[in-house]
Amino acid sequence: MASSRSSSHVGLNSSFYGSTAFIPVNGSGALADPVLRTKILLMGMRRSGKTSIQEVLFHALPPKQTFYLEMTTRVSRHTYDTVIPLEIWDCPGTATLDTLEAPLSQFSTLVFVIDIQDFYQQPISKLADSVATAYQENPGMHLEVFVHKADALSDEYKIENFRLIQQRVTDELIDISPEYEQIPIEFHLTSIYDHSLHEAFSRVLHKLTPSLPYLEDLLNVFCANSQASKAFLFDTSSRLYVATDASPVDPPTHSLCSDYLQMLNSFGPLYRSTSASVPRHQQVASSTVTSPAPSEPTSPRPVAHAIPPSAGSTHSPLPPLPEDIPSLNSSQSPTVMSPSVSTVVSPKSGTPTPSTILRMKNLFYPSASASLSPNASGAGTTVTYHLVTPRLALLAVLPTAIFETRRGLVEYNVVFFREGVQEICEVEEEARKVG
Ligand SMILES: Nc1nc2c(ncn2[C@@H]2O[C@H](COP(=O)(O)OP(=O)(O)OP(=O)(O)O)[C@@H](O)[C@H]2O)c(=O)[nH]1
């Protein structure tokens, strides 16, 4: 499971790397961002759900609270660091590509959000105009349409409206110019209330990740060597999957892994850290909390110990499962088979850096697993979680019988998988440094 470390991994292709970003400070000056960020433009009609998408994915806003979001009146830029550093521009409903006052060449993707019930002339025209302008000015730009709020309709009407919107957009583009019929646009049905949004944005992210083929290779090798039927590399905090193995993604398996990750994430705030700056997703629950045992004797390293709120016993029971996780409800209550070690590195800045990643290599990583049919004498499925970098986690699905009999081998493979992913991330970070 070794991976090459050559910089050809992530060839310096400008369409992947975009340009240097500037993060406004208090609306006055501007600080140069030290990395090249991939820029994504989020556009659409008023109230189509743009800010909700951004907030739910990247700030863990509970979907129901999007109801209280204020109207966007000017372009707001949001940075998010995952397998690649992103900069998302959330535009007001009134904005058009002509009024944007930014060259379109700096954007890698246009995500146009349209309400699934908005198939009238004005939204369709705006969508078609945006696509045509983007294509004219930056033909390499990925064009994605989120047909959003799909939850508002029954399955039958959902598909009908989805097709109708695609057809009308195509007709409108042909009206602008017959050659625009060939513009490659990808349509996604999305909703903040289910996994469709995560699935769609994951696919958007895949097109922007230069190291995707290498990550996929590692996942394929991991699956083959561990007899896993499916494996995902997830961004822990947004729950976007940044890569998966070659087998098809079926929605129930994706939902299962995503829900399990959400459950582990939701444990984080229940545990208090001795260090103030531990990223939330690294504070993973465990039924047994152990102290760090560094593999190599070195100078003291910053570590955090997960501490149950009722400090005292180190063998506290697991907290109850959140009610809103359908596939892990009481009838399928998971058994946490691995009393995972929750010892993590605590970067002082709070933002993991390449050196943090290097330091983490010498430390423990949280892991967990759950059997979906614990009473069926190994006949069920087990989902496993292993943190592999400060931001990324491997989630795999494998037969319980295999996990129970070959757990050592699975853990052994994870070590090499983690090494490979960390090397790829280091090359990516190196390639994106400014100056
Ligand atoms: N049913 C449903 N409602 C949604 C969904 N996404 C967003 N909404 C709702 O749509 C409304 C508008 O959402 P916003 O995110 O503010 O929309 P926006 O496009 O940013 O709006 P502007 O700032 O006016 O451009 C809110 O009440 C959200 O709760 C969804 O997937 N399903």
TrEMBL record:
It is found in: Endomembrane system. Residues 330-352 have a biased composition (Low complexity). The keyword Membrane applies. InterPro entries: Gtr1_RagA, P-loop_NTPase, RagC/D. Keywords: GTP-binding, Hydrolase, Membrane, Nucleotide-binding. The keyword Ribosomal protein does not apply. Residues 283-293 have a biased composition (Polar residues). It holds the Pfam family Gtr1_RagA. GO terms for cellular component: endomembrane system; fungal-type vacuole membrane; Gtr1-Gtr2 GTPase complex; nucleus. It comes from the Eukaryota. Residues 278-352 are annotated as: Disordered. GO terms for molecular function: GTP binding; GTPase activity. Gene3D superfamilies: 3.30.450.190, P-loop containing nucleotide triphosphate hydrolases. GO terms for biological process: cellular response to starvation; negative regulation of autophagy; positive regulation of TORC1 signaling. Transmembrane segments: none annotated. GTPase involved in activation of the TORC1 signaling pathway, which promotes growth and represses autophagy in nutrient-rich conditions. Component of the GSE complex. Belongs to the GTR/RAG GTP-binding protein family. This is GTP-binding protein. It comes from Phanerochaete sordida. The lineage of its organism: Eukaryota, Fungi, Dikarya, Basidiomycota, Agaricomycotina.
